[in-house]
Design goal:
DNA polymerase, domain 1; 3 domains; 399 residues; mainly alpha
């Protein structure tokens, strides 16, 4: 490779930048013309990397510039999203759609993508950062469009521009030179609701005294017992098959979840969510009872091989949103405040902490992607453990 004539220059703010003018990308096989472009960057190495990437993209496009069939940012964003949908899981796709609709498209949707400048993007990122840094003033939930992850929104825009670059619609990505502002963001005081050990004792005493032999009573007895014993997400429980449960070894294998209410996705929420959870003997006994009750029920319907652990009474995938009313009735009967199904996951974490389990073990049981997530969520749910640890210190440090 010939030596590149990369020149140094200063921005208006006095920062050092580099530029390679008229960088040769290749020769267009359709027009016979050389394709050249200017490349700017923070480092010489970055410019060299961008040059190689542009050359490779040009070759992948058949060594020709694709005609600009897309003009607006919105059109390119939709093209990007069509490709993105083919590669991702349902939950991730929904999140990207939300990011596009809430942030990227309102800001740049109707603008010609080839005319959008770094300065315009910089201005928008600063506006998002200011909204993220605004005081919450006691709110437990941020306003729509004022999310704290403004860096993510820049990443989304960057991916749209990279898509445009790969299509040959633009010659450079204006996001490359955007400076990410650092702001202090107030954490929302979201209350985590859970049942204590005493409240759970009260709940299961009520559930077990409900009329036995009825589908709903047996169903909830098994479901709530499993949620408390395992800390599973409710979607993971709805996707369970009997092949996932080993009642002799007291383990549950989590490898699926439900999406769009009644579709089973053959992958859990995150990579770490793929796990095997040990449960207590009491939970195994209740599940075994539910297995035989359910087996008898489906034999009467002519479907003895029904595989799901918690289906509808006809054997279909259960939409757990339809169970909330019955759950609230059970909680009312037990004299307890209403708790969502996710609250039983929090209850499991609280029990684990106060029983003395380490955060690492709890992270693995819950399937959190990071240990820090587990600690951030549940460090305040262990009053019993903290009290015991203080007693241990007092006894040991008695000098």
């Amino acid at each position: 490779m010939n030596k590149l004539n990369i020149k140094e220059y200063k921005t208006k703010s006095g920062e050092i930048r580099y530029i390679l003018r008229g960088a040769y990308i290749g020769t267009d096989v359709l027009t016979g013309k050389q394709v050249k472009t200017d490349i700017r960057g923070r480092t010489k190495k970055g410019i060299k990397n961008d040059l190689e990437r542009l050359k490779n993209d040009f070759k992948r496009n058949g060594s020709t510039r694709v005609k600009e069939s897309f003009e607006t940012f919105s059109e390119v964003a939709e093209s990007f999203f069509d490709v993105y949908k083919l590669e991702q899981k349902v939950g991730t796709i929904k999140q990207m759609r939300s990011n596009l609709d809430t942030y990227a498209l309102p800001a740049f949707g109707d603008k010609c993508i080839s005319k959008i400048t770094t300065a315009q993007i910089q201005k928008q990122v600063i506006a998002w950062a200011k909204k993220a840094a605004a005081p919450l003033e006691g709110k437990q939930k941020r306003d729509v469009g004022a999310g704290k992850d403004y860096k993510l929104q820049l990443n989304v825009i960057n991916r749209v521009f990279q898509h445009a670059l790969s299509l040959g619609i633009i010659e450079r990505n204006p996001c490359q030179s955007v400076i990410i502002p650092k702001v202090r963001i107030e954490s929302s005081s979201k209350e985590i609701k859970f049942y204590t050990k005493e409240e759970l004792t009260k709940l299961f005493s009520h559930v077990e005294n409900l009329t036995s032999g009825k589908w709903t009573s047996e169903y909830f007895n098994a479901l709530l017992r499993l949620l408390v014993a395992s800390g599973m997400r409710i979607g993971e429980a709805m996707a369970l098959s009997w092949l996932d449960i080993d009642l002799d070894k007291h383990t549950v294998s989590v490898s699926k979840t439900t999406t769009q209410r009644t579709l089973i996705q053959d992958a859990p929420k995150t990579r770490k969510s793929n796990r095997i959870i040990s449960i207590d003997e009491k939970a195994s006994t209740v599940l075994k009872r539910w297995y035989f009750f359910q087996k008898k029920h489906f034999m009467s319907l002519g479907n003895p091989q029904q595989p799901l652990v918690f289906p509808t009474w006809q054997g279909n995938v259960m939409d757990y949103h339809g169970l909330v009313y019955r759950l609230n009735k059970i909680e009312d009967g037990a004299g307890l405040p209403h708790l969502s199904f996710h609250g039983f996951r929090h209850s499991h974490a609280s029990l684990c902490l106060n029983a003395g389990m380490t955060y690492k073990v709890i992270q693995e049981r819950l399937g959190h992607s990071t240990l820090q997530m587990t600690m951030d969520l549940y460090s305040h749910l262990e009053p019993e453990k903290k009290s015991k640890e203080l007693e241990l210190f007092t006894k040991y440090a008695n000098f």
